[in-house]
Write a structure and sequence with these properties.
The protein is an alpha/beta fold and 311 residues long. 33% of the residues lie in helices and 24% in strands.
């Protein structure tokens, strides 16, 4: 079973200041939709999230069901509006966002799927550290960690939450300690741990901020090589050039591809000695993430096409 937990949002995408698409999104949401599409319900893919009890919420719930993702654990907030973002694409088709959210009034019922050994949990973003939701999210992650699930944490930290860092940093560290793999973009860590006039490298991020809590770290950096750090491996994996339409969902679908690779290789509950795996074992997992990421960059969708070939 693959379980995602995170926020859901309707992305309205602009090119040259004109709307060109409106698609359901959210970091973990995007990854789960891609996994639902390529796995076809085997194993079951479940998503824990919250949306408003409005038309946008209806769109999101129906979209999950239509793409092989169970909406059983979607919390519908009464008398509230679902989150919306405006994504403005530049000349390189990279997005700048404006978010319309009510973080103070998010809610999620104390109803989570039971996690077992061999299950895969995917989570991240502000949802995972939001003080309003933190007690329930933390309890769920602790139960998944105790059960022996594979836990994949995407930091996905936005500049809009820089002022929240003193409050949420302890939760980020707690999340790392419970995770099998931590992934983030170099931009995430620039916001978290550095400043515009003091750039930071992926190696510095690993040594100072990841390694003390989680042994395995994947750092993406746009079209630049993916960097992997573990106690046994320090490697770069070049990213093939691709003609982009939109980079929205690129990192999310790297997550989907990596998790897909993990499931195909280890989904029967095999023990994973991640901190000892040689680079030859990591390479196909990273390559799977890169294939998913490249595919999603070639459309306005936040997820791979339904006919996407995983080979």
């Amino acid at each position: 079973m693959i379980i995602g937990i995170g926020e859901t949002i309707l992305d309205i995408i602009f090119k040259n200041d004109q709307p060109v698409a409106a698609v359901p999104g959210g970091s973990t949401f995007n990854a789960l939709i891609s996994l639902g599409r390529v796995l076809g319900g085997n194993p079951p893919v479940l998503f824990v999230t919250e949306v408003g009890n409005d038309h946008v919420g209806d769109i999101i719930v129906n979209f999950l069901a239509a793409n092989g993702v169970s909406a059983e654990y979607v919390n519908r907030r009464e008398n509230s509006k679902s989150h919306i973002s405006l994504a403005f694409l530049d000349e390189h088709n990279d997005a700048q966002y404006q978010f319309y959210k009510d973080h103070a009034n998010v809610s999620i019922e104390n109803k989570f799927p039971e996690v077992k050994k061999g299950d895969i949990v995917v989570f991240g973003s502000f949802f995972a550290v939001n003080p309003v939701l933190r007690p329930l999210v933390k309890a769920f992650l602790e139960s998944a960690h105790k059960a022996g699930a594979f836990i994949y944490y995407d930091i996905n930290f936005r500049a809009s939450h820089i002022d929240d860092i003193p409050v949420i940093l302890p939760a980020i560290i707690e999340n790392m300690k419970m995770s099998s793999v931590v992934r983030g973009s170099l931009e995430d860590f620039q916001y978290l741990y550095a400043s515009p006039d003091a750039p930071i490298t992926a190696a510095e991020v690993y040594d100072r901020y990841i390694k003390p809590h989680c042994p395995c770290f994947i750092c993406t950096n746009g079209s630049k090589p993916v960097e992997l750090f573990t106690p046994a491996v320090c490697a770069e994996f070049p990213t093939a050039p691709v003609k982009t339409v939109s980079t929205i969902g690129a990192g999310d679908n790297f997550n989907a591809g990596f998790v897909y690779g993990i499931y195909k290789a280890y989904g029967d509950g095999k023990e994973l000695a991640l901190d000892k795996m040689p680079v030859e074992v990591w390479q196909p997992l990273i390559a799977s993430g890169q294939r998913f990421s490249s595919a999603v960059c070639q459309s306005f969708d936040n997820y791979v096409d339904k006919d996407f070939s995983v080979s």
